[in-house]
Amino acid sequence: RIFSFLDVVTLCRCAQVSRAWNVLALDGSNWQRIDLFDFQRDIEGSRGSPSCSGHLCQVPSSPQPAHPMGFLWPGVNPLQELSPRVSSSTCTSLSKFCSKLRHLDLASCTSITNLSLKALSEGCPLLEQLIISWCDQVTKDGIQALVRGCGGLRALSLKGCTQLEDEALKFIGAHCPELVTLNLQTCLQITDDGLITICRGCHKLQSLCASGCSNITDAILNALGQNCPRLRILEVARCSQLTDVGFTTLARNCHELEKMDLEECVQITDSTLIQLSIHCPRLQVLSLSHCELITDDGIRHLGNGACAHDRLEVIELDNCPLITDASLEHLKSCHSLERIELYDCQQITRAGIKRLRTHLPNIKVHAYFAPVTPPPSVGGSRQRFCRCCIIL
């Protein structure tokens, strides 16, 4: 029990003290969660017991103090985030020796291929969370192989997997009914067809990121509203084809929404905010940056909505040219508001922000006001410019 409180490095040191301590230190119960982010040197001849790998449940990638360390299971280099050494052979070893693996982060490991996912599918059937963001060699064939063996996936990040098409999503929708979190950011080839399959097959979905998937339309919002009532997080920044019609259907059916990123959804108007204010009482974070049709009236409805008084924490209104100080007046009653973004809202004034702060003294307001250009020098012929103009 004492050994169960020790970190990885201390366990390895204790394992060298005696045979008895070696058995205790390398007991599988001490190795259910390990972090190898900064273990970048491989020391040959110092290996951990293969018996511990059978108990491995999680391989995260958060930073820890760097220490030299040998292999933990035969043939597997210590996993690192952003490490090109993590490849198909690594995944083969994980498959062979880590059958209880549940969480694996391989973000930006660009050597990961379809064969890597096939190996994980065959040997790690308990996998629940997989991050393969920016693994741009992965195609629909790899996803098909993965989900056939890992049908219990609950969280899957495919951000930046640019080769993925709708066919890959159809495999996920057909084989992963437990899926809760899905990240498809910048998967540029994704369209309505693939995402609708996800909505119909993954009714437990709570978090979806499709930011940058510019081909999707209101059909996705309708499918989410009809099939995924537990949705809490929706990120669809830069999806410029989405309109008020789709968001109306979404809001009327997904009452648990907490975070929405609608940046550069340029077609939405105050109508979307009216629907959110009526049907989404749990809304905490809302990004409306570059939604240039939003006006003070929409913010007024939001400020009077069910989420306003004790839920809404962050609202981003950068580059909303129709927003004025009146919007800040409407947000005074949002007592939980912690941060508001107002960059390039040219009708917002310092006086309006000051009045808001008298009601919400702890709020963080991010805004920018260009310095006033000074008048020409009296009696001089040379024009004076403000600092911004000089920089430009």
UniProtKB/TrEMBL annotation:
Residue stretches making up the F-box domain: 1-34
Domain of life: Eukaryota
Cross-referenced Pfam families: DUF7885, F-box-like, LRR_6
Acetylation as UniProt keyword: no
Keywords: Leucine-rich repeat, Ubl conjugation pathway
Annotated transmembrane regions: none
UniProt key word Protein biosynthesis: no
UniProt cross-references to Gene3D superfamilies, sorted A to Z: 1.20.1280.50, Ribonuclease Inhibitor
GO CC terms: SCF ubiquitin ligase complex
Any Gene Ontology biological process: SCF-dependent proteasomal ubiquitin-dependent protein catabolic process
Classification via SUPFAM superfamilies: F-box domain, RNI-like
Species per Swiss-Prot/TrEMBL record: Calcarius ornatus (Chestnut-collared longspur)
Name assigned to this protein: FXL20 protein
